[in-house]
Amino acid sequence: MIGIGLMRRFGVLVILLAMGIVWGATIPLTKIVVSTGYQPLGLIFWQLIFAIIVLAPIALVRRVISGPGRLSPLNSQTLVYFLVIILLGTLIPNSFSYLSAAQLPAGVMSIVIASVPMFALIIALALRIEKPVTARIIGVLAGAVAVALLIGPKTSLPEPEKAIYVLVALLAPVSYGFEASYIALRAPKQLDPVTTLLGASVLGIFIVGPLAYFTDSWIDLNIEWQGPEKALLASSVMHVFAYVGYIWLVGVAGVVFSSQIAYVVTIAGVLLSAIALNEIYSNWVWAALALILVGMILVQPRKMTLQPVKE
Q1: What is the pTM (predicted TM-score) of this model?
Q2: Mapping DSSP to helix (H, G, I), strand (E, B) and coil, where does residue 75 land?
Q3: Would you say residue 306 has pLDDT above 90?
């Protein structure tokens, strides 16, 4: 029995690493996507379409297995929830991420996006969802110093004049931080994460589609696909599978253990960007990576033990 338990725990750890690497790989793929000058709204529209194509069969299978009671009611509460999720979790952060990804190295984007838990903590403290803890406050300060290293020293970025885009990129984790607090306060009990992501994506195409069309951001994919188009499909599908895998991981190993996937995503994003895109980083960037990882460790809840794997 002990051997089986260890094997299951090892399997969960392997899955955590795999999901983190997949998630991290979407960051250099995003850099490839924006290399052609595609505009954010057009990219977000197709990202939502690909997400629906992947999530709809998953939701249907879960619906068949679980029976009629699985279907979540569609009412004003769920529609408002989907609207906030699509705005704070996709439209706003992805717009700023795509804009900044076109100007910054993908490795730097990996470091910036790692500040999500720090902004989430700041917002949660402001809303009194969380209580201040000294170690976690120090973690937030470590994250702030990491950002300062990226935008301060003249040698931190290949093109120092583009340091302003680090601040633009930071608007994405700020948005995710507000999303996290909103979910903690307003998430309908009858909605599971897969249903939420699917519902928000469906609502999102009716918002983003017209915006993309009327702002001349529309992307016609009825062409011969090259690297950017293939990267868009790959990153969209990989993101959905990583997200669904993360939700499964939370169910079998607990939230605290699963949250450590953030470290894997950040490190994988930096290393894969260096390998796939031949990016070279200054010592300031590596120092920022070290500080952001320290900050992430400190802002985590104190109990970091692996929860028992559910039978």
Answers
A1: 0.86
A2: coil
A3: no
